[in-house]
Amino acid sequence: DVTEIEEKEAQAKQEEQIMKEQELSNLLHEKRYLKALGLAISLDRPHTVLMVVKAILKETDGRKHLEENIVRLRKDQKEAVLTFLVTWNTNSRNCHEAQAVIETLLKHEAPDSLLQYSGIKSAVESLLPYT
């Protein structure tokens, strides 16, 4: 019977999730946005990533800080953010944040580099009608 083992694994995963949520909350409170972005992306939380982007943009020189943080993300993290912002861009409340991230990616990534992103074609096709 493996029920008990499975229950313990599920409980351990749930506890780990709660710890990561708390860590994310602490990072946002401490304004450590790069780590907060990375953690929210790893948790696959598009809304949380959006909240981090909004928090960065509310800061003095928010655009500059956003650029600094987006540029420092790994390629896989940038791909995830690109996927998230396609959805953000369809909502008028979030389109400004999505456009700010798109602008940063277009400024700091070479076209050849952008073409290597997984899902770039569908992302561009989805962004065009709303941009």
Topology:
Elements (H helix, E strand, L loop, with lengths): L2 H27 L3 H10 L3 H13 L3 H10 L3 H15 L5 H14 L2 H5 L4 H8 L4
Helix pairs in contact: 1-2, 2-3, 3-4, 3-5, 4-6, 5-6, 5-8
Let me know the largest β-sheet: none
Query: How many strand units?
Result: 0
Based on CA inertia axes, which overall geometry fits?
Answer: globular
Oligomer: single chain
Helical coverage, percent range? over 70%
Number of helices, where a helix is a run of at least 4 consecutive DSSP H or I residues? 8
Mean pLDDT comes to 91
Question: What is Rg?
Answer: 17 Å
Range of strand content: under 5%
Q: Would you kindly provide a written description of the structure presented here, covering whatever features stand out?
A:
The protein has one domain. The chain is built from 8 helices and no strands. The longest helix has 27 residues, at 3-29. Helix 4 (62-71) packs across helix 6. With 131 residues, the chain is mainly alpha-helical. The protein has helices at residues 3-29, 33-42, 46-58, 62-71, 75-89, 95-108, 111-115, 120-127.
